[in-house]
Structure formats: structure tokens, C-alpha cells
């Protein structure tokens, strides 16, 4: 197995571990309380809930942004054109997002959510948009240099 795919599988394993009961809402709330107390911040229960929601949704975006980038890197080697790898990375990222939510449906303190699949897809999509924005100028530069 090539190294890019090993990185994809390791990242997916880490994401699956983070989807267990060990990292439920109560865990992130405890971490937020700890950091607020460490930094001498006073935080109300309502503000803690909002901060926890933002933190958890950002975690979805970040995890799947990284997954999308790793998937693209692994797929681009065999892709005839870069856009093929981008589409494949999007589809695989979406499939893993749905599998991750299915996994959470069988845990004691977590639950499946189509909203979270949307956040996950937004993470994969934003990674592919970044690839797209980097590839267009590079492709244009290569075309103008080959025409000279």
C-alpha cells in the first residue's frame, strides 16, 4: 500500500475513535470549562453551550477538510485529470461522513445527524475548493509556458 493511502486510513481511524462515546458532548464541555477556568474566564451555561456547539461543528469541518485533502493526494496519482480526483475525493468523503454518522447511531451517548453530514461535506468541499484554486493558476501557467 502506498503512503498516501496509509495516511488516509490512519486519519479515518482517528476520526472513528473521536466518534466514540469517549468524545461526546460532555467531554468537550469539560474541556471548555477547564480552559475557561485556566484562563480565568467566567462563562455562563448558555455561553458554554454555544461555545461547545461552535467547537464541535468546527471539529467536523476541520476533520473532513483534512480527510478531503488526504483523499485528493492519494487519488491524484492515478487520475487522468485533477478534477477526477476532486470528484472522487468528494464522493469518498461523503461516504465516510455517512458511515461515521451510522457508527455514532450505535453508540450510547451519541446519535446520527444529517446536519453533521452536511458539516462534514462542507469540510471536504472546502478542501477541494482549495485544491481547485491552487490548480487553476498552476494549469494556466503550465499552458502559457508550453505555448511559448
Report on this model:
The protein has helices spanning 3-18, 25-38, 45-75, 82-105, 114-147. It has one domain. 80% of the residues lie in helices and 0% in strands. By secondary structure, it is mostly helical. The radius of gyration is 19 Å and the shape is elongated. Helix 2 (25-38) crosses helix 3 and helix 3 (45-75) packs across helix 4.
Number of DSSP-assigned strands: 0
Structural class: mainly alpha
Q: Low-confidence runs (pLDDT<50, min 5 residues)?
A: none
Could you say how many structural domains there are in total? Answer: 1
DSSP helix count? Answer: 5
The share of residues in extended strands comes to: under 5%
From the alpha-carbon coordinates, what is the Rg to the nearest angstrom? Answer: 19 Å
The coarse silhouette is elongated
How would a textbook summarize the main sheet?
none
Mean pLDDT: 88
Distance between the termini: 40 Å
Helicity, as a percent range? over 70%
SSE order in H/E notation?
Answer: HHHHH
Summary?
This protein is mainly α and 148 residues long.
Q: What's the structural blueprint in terms of helices and strands?
A:
Layout: H1 3-18, H2 25-38, H3 45-75, H4 82-105, H5 114-147
Helix pairs in contact: 1-3, 2-3, 3-4, 3-5, 4-5
Keywords:
148 residues; mainly alpha
Amino acid at each position: 500500500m502506498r503512503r498516501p493511502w496509509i495516511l488516509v486510513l490512519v486519519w479515518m481511524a482517528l476520526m472513528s475513535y473521536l466518534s466514540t462515546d469517549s468524545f461526546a458532548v460532555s467531554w468537550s464541555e469539560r474541556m471548555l470549562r477547564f480552559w475557561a477556568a485556566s484562563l480565568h474566564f467566567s462563562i455562563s451555561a448558555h455561553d458554554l453551550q454555544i461555545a461547545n456547539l461552535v467547537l464541535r461543528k468546527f471539529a467536523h469541518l476541520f476533520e473532513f477538510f483534512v480527510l478531503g485533502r488526504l483523499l485528493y493526494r492519494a487519488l491524484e496519482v492515478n487520475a487522468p485529470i485533477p478534477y477526477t480526483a476532486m470528484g472522487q475525493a468528494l464522493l469518498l468523503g461523503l461516504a465516510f461522513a455517512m458511515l461515521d454518522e451510522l457508527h455514532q447511531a450505535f453508540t450510547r451517548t451519541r446519535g446520527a445527524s444529517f446536519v453533521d453530514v452536511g458539516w462534514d461535506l462542507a469540510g471536504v468541499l472546502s478542501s477541494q475548493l482549495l485544491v481547485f484554486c491552487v490548480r487553476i493558476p498552476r494549469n494556466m501557467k503550465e499552458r502559457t509556458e508550453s505555448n511559448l
